[in-house]
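Example record

The entry below shows one chain as it appears in the dataset: sequence first, then structure tokens.
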Amino acid sequence: VVAGLTHTGLTHHRTMLWFPPLLSLLVLKARPHARHVIVDVENVRGKSGFVLNHQQTLRALNVWHSQWNVSCTAVIDHGSEPSRILYQNMLVQFAGTTRKADDVIADDLVRYCRDDVVVVTADMGLIDRCRRNAHKKQLSILPPLLLVQDLETILEELPEETKEEQEEVETEEEDTADSLLEDETTQLLDYEI
């Protein structure tokens, strides 16, 4: 939620964090029709000079898309097989060994998504394929450099969890099914990346 176009907020461990204006979110506010964001993760990481690793990118993406209140799918070229996992409140899709993220994005996600979509990529070939496959849906392209700047801002502002905070959260969530799923998801994510 962009509050007065000046700050965005996020609740993290019972405290409210404030981010400077996130430019990509301001750009996306001009696209109120879009309900789903599809991110070409390797393209975004490439625009960062591969300074952002997969975990950092996914952690910041999760915060970023929750600020806009839309669903998000992060597509990664890697993976032992094509698969999807829920990472916190974001879908992460692995292309597997026989396909590229571009194939998943253009041929599967854009073509069959019911809602209007925003694709985050600078890959002109992928953009052309998405436009051909969008049919009657509204397709918007977000330049990844805008997103990279925002992801870096988010990572700078997010506090690093101390060991005590991690242990406190783990203790609070020990008996919940969500924590079991989160553990399995984290392990699968680490394995696939």
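Notes for this example: The CA atoms of residues 107 and 133 lie 7 Å apart. The radius of gyration is 17 Å.
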